[in-house]
Every structure is written in C-alpha cells, then in structure tokens.
C-alpha cells in the first residue's frame, strides 16, 4: 500500500506530535518497520530520547545508514536485545 517503509521512525499518535522538538522532520518521513530507536534503546528509553533518535535518523537519511540499521535489526532479533 506504500504507507510504510522498511526503515524509518515508528508511527506516533497525533497527540504525541507536540512532544517532538522538530515535528516537521518527523512528518517528512514514512514510518518504518524498523528504525534507529528499535536497535538503539527500544523499551529502555524515554519518549524524549525516542524523539531525539527519530530526529537523528531524519538528519542522517542515507542508504548506508538504513543498511546499518537493517543489519543491527537482524542482530537485535537474533540476540533478543534492544541494542
């Protein structure tokens, strides 16, 4: 359907949008199945850190960075970790 990409920020609820410092950076991206937050901190973080990781992803948006996240996702799944 094209609503999601393989790598990108997690979808958020509309009421969470004001919690982002730079919501425009987030809104310019399609949500992803995996992302920087999932391979960095996952459930061991605050919403503020999740938002910061989404912004960092938006600033470093390259094929190489996406590939690194995909490889890290495979490692996280195989080792059952959030890192």
Protein architecture, described:
The chain has 83 residues and is mainly α. 48% of the residues lie in helices and 7% in strands. It has 4 helices and 2 strands; from the N terminus they run E-H-E-H-H-H. It has helices at residues 23-27, 36-40, 47-59, 63-79; strands at 5-7, 32-34. The protein has a two-stranded parallel sheet. Helix 1 links the parallel strand 1 (5-7) and strand 2 (32-34). The longest helix is centred in the C-terminal third of the chain and has 17 residues, at 63-79. The model has no long low-confidence stretch (mean pLDDT 83).
Task: Please provide a brief summary of the model.
The protein has about 80 residues and is mainly alpha-helical. The protein is built from four helices and two strands, in the order E-H-E-H-H-H.
Written as H for each helix and E for each strand, in order along the chain, the element string is EHEHHH
Order of strands in the sheet with the most strands? 1-2
Strand composition percent: 5-15%
Question: Total number of β-strand segments?
Answer: 2
Coarse shape:
globular
Q: Helical content, roughly? A: 40-55%
Radius of gyration over all CA atoms, rounded: 12 Å
Mean pLDDT: 83
**Helix-strand category:** mainly alpha
- Spans of at least 5 consecutive residues whose pLDDT stays below 50 are none
**What composes the largest sheet?**
2 strands, parallel
Distance between the termini: 30 Å
Provide a count of the helices. Answer: 4
């Amino acid at each position: 359907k094209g609503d999601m990409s393989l790598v990108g920020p997690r979808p958020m609820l509309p009421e969470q949008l004001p919690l982002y410092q730079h919501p425009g950076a987030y809104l310019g991206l399609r949500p992803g199945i995996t992302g920087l937050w999932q391979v960095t901190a996952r459930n061991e973080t605050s919403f503020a850190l999740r938002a910061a990781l989404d912004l960092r992803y938006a600033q470093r948006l390259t094929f190489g960075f996406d590939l690194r996240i995909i490889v890290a996702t495979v490692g996280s799944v195989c080792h059952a970790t959030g890192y």
